[in-house]
Amino acid sequence: MRTDKEALADRLRQIVSSEAAEQFLDELNGLRAEDVAEAIGRLELADAVSILQALDSDLAAYVLIELPTETARAVINELPDATIAHYLDILPMDDAMDLREELDPDRFESLLNVIPQEDAQEIRRLMSYPDGSAGQILTEDFVEVGPDATMAEVIGVIRSGLEEEYETVNYIYVLSADRHLLGVLTLRRVLRAHPDAPAREVMNANPMSVPVEMAEEEVARILARYGFTAIPVLDHRGRIVGIITADDAQSVLQDAQTEDVLKLGGVSGDAEAYPSLSIWQLVKRRTPWLLILFVAEFFTGSVLRHYLGSAADDDPNSTLSIIAKLQLFIPLLIGAGGNSGSQVTTTITRALALGEVRSRDWWLVMRREFAVALIIGGILGLFGFARAVLPGLGWSQPLPLSITVGIALPCIIVWAAVVGSMLPIGAKRLGIDPAVMSAPFISTFVDATGLIIFFEVARRVLAAYGLVI
Amino acid sequence: MRTDKEALADRLRQIVSSEAAEQFLDELNGLRAEDVAEAIGRLELADAVSILQALDSDLAAYVLIELPTETARAVINELPDATIAHYLDILPMDDAMDLREELDPDRFESLLNVIPQEDAQEIRRLMSYPDGSAGQILTEDFVEVGPDATMAEVIGVIRSGLEEEYETVNYIYVLSADRHLLGVLTLRRVLRAHPDAPAREVMNANPMSVPVEMAEEEVARILARYGFTAIPVLDHRGRIVGIITADDAQSVLQDAQTEDVLKLGGVSGDAEAYPSLSIWQLVKRRTPWLLILFVAEFFTGSVLRHYLGSAADDDPNSTLSIIAKLQLFIPLLIGAGGNSGSQVTTTITRALALGEVRSRDWWLVMRREFAVALIIGGILGLFGFARAVLPGLGWSQPLPLSITVGIALPCIIVWAAVVGSMLPIGAKRLGIDPAVMSAPFISTFVDATGLIIFFEVARRVLAAYGLVI
Question: What is the ipTM of this complex?
Answer without folding.
Answer: 0.79
